[in-house]
Amino acid sequence: MADILKLVDDKASDLIRIADAIWDFAELGFREVRSAKIQADYLEEQGFRVTREAGGIPTAFVAEWGDGGPYIGFLGEYDALAGVSQEVSAERQPREDGGPGHGCGHNLLGTAAMGAAVALKQALMEKNLPGTVRYYGCPAEELLAGKVYMAREELFSDLDIAITWHPGSMNTVRLGSGTGLNSAKFQFFGKTAHAAGDPHNGRSALDAVELMNVGANYLREHVIKDATIHYVITSGGGQPNVVPSFAEVWYFVRAPRRNQVEEIYERLVNVARGAALMTETTFEIDFLTGCYEVLLNEALADVMWDCLQEVGPPQFDEKDLEFAKKLAETFDKAQMENLYKSPDFQEFPELREQVVHTSLLPPRGKGRSGGGSTDVGDVSWIVPTVQMSAATVPIGCPGHSWQHCASSGSSIGHKGMLVAAKTMALCGLKLVENPELIQKAWEEFREKTKDSPYRCPFPKDKEFPLDRFFS
Ligand SMILES: [Zn+2]
To answer: pLDDT tens digits for 374-423?
Structure first.
């Protein structure tokens, strides 16, 4: 078993080089041209067959080695976040003012999954085992879109197992489900007029946006407590003395279950209808994406937990700990106190003594649906999916932050990434060597999905709105 871990170690310097390059590129969703290319080129060098622009999405690709079952897929991501550009420094020091940065560690995420695929391929070759190893280069996770679009193109449909991870502050296996989501821009069309000269001839699209938001804010009271609705106005007119003929508001609707999202979203569309009626405007919906909550497979989580224990936590050195400590000093004290009250810290009080996580936690989050969403959710309703987390940032590091970006470019990030690559590779190998584990995962999956088979939230005939997220 241990030799597959060595196969990852053999590639460690390549993985660190690629993760750092992607950290440096810091490309936003659907613009990850260089990040996708560096991984696709590397996988080609390693003997994988690469399909670029998979599903017609320019920065998506699928790399494959082997033939026949079982089909083991590793899911990778590589998009950055706007506004969190940062040097590897414990003081706020943007590399580019207001620029993007890897504040969610996706430079590590994709690279570790890629490393696991390369090691598993090598192991299957050496042991003469059957199977196909795939790496999915998935763009735009931060936009909750890449895997949804790839799912519509049925790129995951023949997989037996999907394996992934997320960088974070804990070494553990994830079982939390997050939330499902719909993301849509509501565009209102009115009639322009001189705002002082002949306002009676104007019909303001901005009025419609404002009334829609008022309606949505009243709607909040009458939806389930775990649902959230958030919006930003992306266009509100040009200047006050011109009645705006166009205005646009971008909404997220989230809830613990996909059917709840759909139900609340339909009510929000009614609110938009009402706003249009009141203002004598018309409206159109630019549906950007929708995703499922995550359905993590407990049978697979057990397998991955065994693997994580075999690999062990990252070994941080004095320099890492010193950097972590300095970074942690910048974290919000009230937020840290809240964290200490959370279930993990109640159950494992020794965590309070650690700056970075240097032990392991058994599978976490069962039955919990946190606030966030991920497009891993869609894959998890198509094929049994397992997801771990490895410590790449200090405990308490806020998500989507400059501190996260700093740590994702540091040796703390690298060490967590290698633990993830090893654990995922080992997990893949265990599954290939023990097909009954794959069967068990499918029994659980079939039972949990029998009443609600996957239906891609993104419509069949609609063109992917790749360039409409940041406009
Ligand atoms: Zn992320």
So the answer is: 999 999 999 999 999 999 999 999 999 999 999 999 999 999 999 999 99
312 and 422 share one domain: yes
Which pLDDT does position 369 carry in this prediction? 76
Residue 307 shares a structural domain with residue 426: yes
Ligand 1 mean position, distance from CA 340 (Å): 23
The CA 244 to ligand 1 mean position distance, Å, reads: 37
Do 438 and 304 sit in the same domain of this protein?
yes
The radius of gyration computed from the CA coordinates of the chain, to the nearest angstrom, equals 23
Over residues 219-245, the mean pLDDT reads 96
Whether residue 301 sits in one domain with residue 320: yes
CB-based neighbours (< 5 A) of ligand 1, an ion: 104
Report pTM: 0.96
**Distance (Å) from CA 105 to ligand 1 centroid:** 7
Tell me the CA–centroid distance for residue 77 and ligand 1, in Å: 8
d(CA 215, CA 300): 44
End-to-end Cα separation, the chain, in angstroms? 49
How far, in Å, CA of 76 to CA of 165, rounded? 9
Task: List, in order, residues 6 or more apart from 105 with CB less than 8 Å away.
Answer: 166, 167, 168, 392, 393, 404, 407, 408, 413
Cα–Cα dist 120/65, whole Å: 10
| Conformational region of residue 300, where left means phi above 0, alpha means psi within -120 to 50, and beta covers everything else | alpha
Are both 39 and 88 inside the same structural domain?
yes
Tell me whether residue 461 is in a domain: no
* Residue range(s) defining the domain that contains residue 205: 180-291
- Give me the pLDDT at residue 268, please: 98
Task: Say if residue 283 is in the same domain as residue 396.
Answer: no
Instruction: Report whether pLDDT(314) > 80.
Output: yes
Ligand 1 centroid to Cα of residue 36, in Å, is 16
Q: Which of 291, 312, 343 is the last residue of a domain?
A: 291
111 sits in which H/E element: helix 106-127
Q: Which residues contact 10 (CB under 8 A, 6 or more apart)?
A: none
* Within a domain: 236: yes
Do 218 and 163 share a structural domain?
no
Distance CA 64, CA 46 (A): 11
Give pLDDT tens digits for 158-211. Answer: 999 999 999 999 999 999 999 999 999 999 999 999 999 999 999 999 999 999
The rounded distance, in Å, linking the Cα atoms of 108 and 177 is 22
Same-domain check for residues 281 and 400: no
Please give the Cα distance from 274 to 179 (Å, whole number): 27
